[in-house]
Amino acid sequence: MLLYNTSKRSKEEFVPGQPGKVKMYACGPTVYDYFHIGNARAFVTFDVLRRYFEYRGYEVDYVQNITDIDDKIIARSLEEKVPFQQIADKYAQAFLDDSAALGIKKPNHQPRATEVLTDIISAIQALVEKGFAYEVAGDVYFDTGALPEYGSLSGKKRDEQLPGARITENPKKRNPADFTLWKASKPGEPVWQSPWGEGRPGWHTECVVMGQKFLGDNFDIHGGGIDLVFPHHENELAQALALTGKPLANYWMHNGFLNIDGDKMSKSLDNFFTARDILEKHSAEAIRFFFLSKHYRSPIDFNPQIIEESERAVHNFHEALRSIAFGKISAEADGSFAEQEKAFIEAMDDDLNTARALAVLFELTRSVKNEQLPREKREQAALMLVKLGRVLGFFADLESKLSEQVPDLSRQLIELLLDYRKQARQNKDWALSDRIRDDLAALGVEIRDTPQGCEWKIK
To answer: Per the omega criterion (within 30 degrees of 0), is the bond before 83 cis?
Structure first.
């Protein structure tokens, strides 16, 4: 299995630290608001990676953090004049609810930053004692100049390590790129006691401590969005190297950006969508299909047309399974479609190429719907479709999806009309064909002609 390792700028063969086991950490949300659709891409990507490892027989220990103390949370609490914990609790629960709605499996561990404060303070003390951190007026900074490897993950040279979104110009710092490990609290902010006075932890330290607490000093995979490479993941790696002399993770994986109609998603452009917004209009499986239709490292553009196409693709899967009455299949998989499973594995082993993997699902769908094939063959294709689809996170609620059917008499009447329409088209009676289509559309029955035949659904 090949994975693209950001730290090496290339694909590498995946070799776990312990045979048969995978230890992976992916950055979770900072809970000051509902998470947006770009965050959802990261959460779905690493959910699929976890599912694929499990499908391949690995025992996976998956950690995803919840950052429940941060500048943005404090700002929101001050704005709404409520305790920070009330804000954090509200949006942490929303994150859990929306993740479940997206079909994301719950991680093995989902720690909150405030639950590991003792560990965070101990880690900062160790960094100070080792000479990698210094205190100034109650703030503690990591000394990037003391670590020669600093910049190795992102590839940024010293003159490129300039202040950014979370690194501000500060005359108290020895180097502009030095980052905060502990912040002295300001009036009205939450506080915890520490050797340096009342304060709170820095974001970068929260994550490295949570990763090491549950997975050890060095683990297999650390993941997140491409925007986290620098400074967040760079700073996590720096602390781990300073504390233990070991890299925090052996493979660093990052998913690409999500754009809205070609533009970067931004509240200022009024094109900002939360996952909750999208789930009100589209199915979770369509959203998942949309993400997986592009390679996880590629940028992806979100627009109404693409998500509608994703809805149709997922509907096609379910229609194929309905056509074979999948719920009544009692046969066991017999290896008839082993070649398709092999192609699926080859795609996923090539740096999680879900777009190619989806092509295998399409091929199986065509076999399921192919009435020229023996019934037994179609059933085997259906069994393989569901088996591989579940690796990608589809078909979790298959029984309910397949039960969402039109009453039998209505279905028979619709299909009878479509048979008449098929005959009309064969006779080149386009007027009758169009009239049947339009009359069905007026009744709320949407039909679509495909190379595999006519498909229909209730709007």
So the answer is: no
Q: Number of helices and strands (H, E) in the chain?
A: 15, 15
Beta strands (DSSP E) in 69-177 are 133-136, 139-142
Instruction: Write down how long the chain is.
Output: 459
Q: What is the distance between the alpha carbons of residues 352 and 291, in angstroms, rounded to a whole number?
A: 12
Residue type, 23: K
SS3 264: strand
Q: What does the CA dihedral 347, 348, 350, 352 come to, rounded to 10 degrees?
A: 130
Apex 347 CA angle, 346 and 348, nearest 5: 95
* Rg from Cα positions in the chain: 26
CB atoms within 10 A of CB 147: 16
Contact yes or no for 17/320 (Cβ under 8 A):
no
Per-position pLDDT tens, the chain of length 459: 999 999 999 999 999 999 999 999 999 999 999 999 999 999 999 999 999 999 999 999 999 999 999 999 999 999 999 999 999 999 999 999 999 999 999 999 999 999 999 999 999 999 999 999 999 999 999 999 999 999 999 998 766 666 554 445 678 899 999 999 999 999 989 999 999 999 999 999 999 999 999 999 999 999 999 999 999 999 999 999 999 999 999 999 999 999 987 777 766 667 788 999 999 999 999 999 999 999 999 999 998 889 999 999 999 999 999 988 898 898 898 999 999 999 999 999 999 999 999 999 999 999 999 999 999 999 999 999 999 999 999 999 887 777 655 555 677 788 889 999 999 999 999 999 999 999 999 888 888 887 767 888 776
Tokens linked to 231 = 């400074």
- If one counts every other C-beta atom within 10 angstroms of the C-beta of residue 431, the result is 8
CA distance 417 to 423: 10
Which DSSP helix (H) or strand (E) runs through 253?
A: strand 249-255
d(CA 105, CA 280): 20
Cα gap 93→35, rounded to integer Å: 11
Contacts of 137 (CB under 8 A, 6+ apart): 172, 184
Q: One-letter amino acid identity for 185?
A: S
SS3 310: helix
Q: Which domains does the chain have, with CATH numbers?
A: 2-260 (3.40.50.620), 304-403 (1.20.120.640), 408-458 (no CATH)
